[in-house]
C-alpha cells in the first residue's frame, strides 16, 4: 500500500475519530453550560449530535487531503494548498458561526492532518 493511502486510512479511521471525540466532548460541555434548557449532566445528546456532524466533515477533509496528495507529489506544495484551503474553511466557519468552539472544530483536522503528512513523509516505508 502506498504512503498516501496509509496516510488517508490513518487520518480517516484513527486520527479523525479521536479528534472528533475530544472536540465533541468539549463542544457538548460548552453547549450544556450555556443552555438554560439542559441540565449540566445532559451532555450526551449534544455530544452525539456534534459527533455525527463533525465526523463526516473530518472524513471529507481527509479525502481532500488524499486527493491533493495524489495530485501534488511535493510535500511543500501539498501542505501550502491544503492549509490555504484550511484557512478558507476556518474563515467561512468563523463568518457563519462566530463561535470559538466552531473554529477549533474546523481548524483541528487541518493541523492534525498536516502533522501526519509530515511524519508520514519522513518515514522510509
TrEMBL record:
UniProt entry keywords in alphabetical sequence: Membrane, Transmembrane, Transmembrane helix
Name under which the protein is recorded: Uncharacterized protein
Transmembrane segments: 12-32, 44-67, 79-97, 103-120
Amino acid at each position: 500500500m502506498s504512503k498516501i493511502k496509509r496516510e488517508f486510512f490513518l487520518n480517516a479511521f484513527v486520527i479523525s475519530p479521536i479528534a472528533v471525540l475530544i472536540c465533541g466532548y468539549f463542544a457538548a460541555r460548552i453547549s450544556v453550560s450555556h443552555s438554560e434548557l439542559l441540565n449540566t449532566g445532559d451532555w450526551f445528546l449534544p455530544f452525539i449530535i456534534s459527533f455525527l456532524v463533525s465526523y463526516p466533515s473530518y472524513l471529507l477533509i481527509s479525502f481532500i487531503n488524499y486527493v491533493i496528495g495524489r495530485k501534488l507529489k511535493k510535500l511543500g506544495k501539498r501542505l501550502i494548498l491544503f492549509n490555504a484551503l484550511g484557512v478558507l474553511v476556518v474563515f467561512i466557519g468563523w463568518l457563519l458561526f462566530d463561535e470559538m468552539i466552531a473554529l477549533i472544530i474546523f481548524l483541528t483536522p487541518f493541523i492534525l492532518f498536516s502533522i501526519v503528512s509530515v511524519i508520514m513523509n519522513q518515514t522510509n516505508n
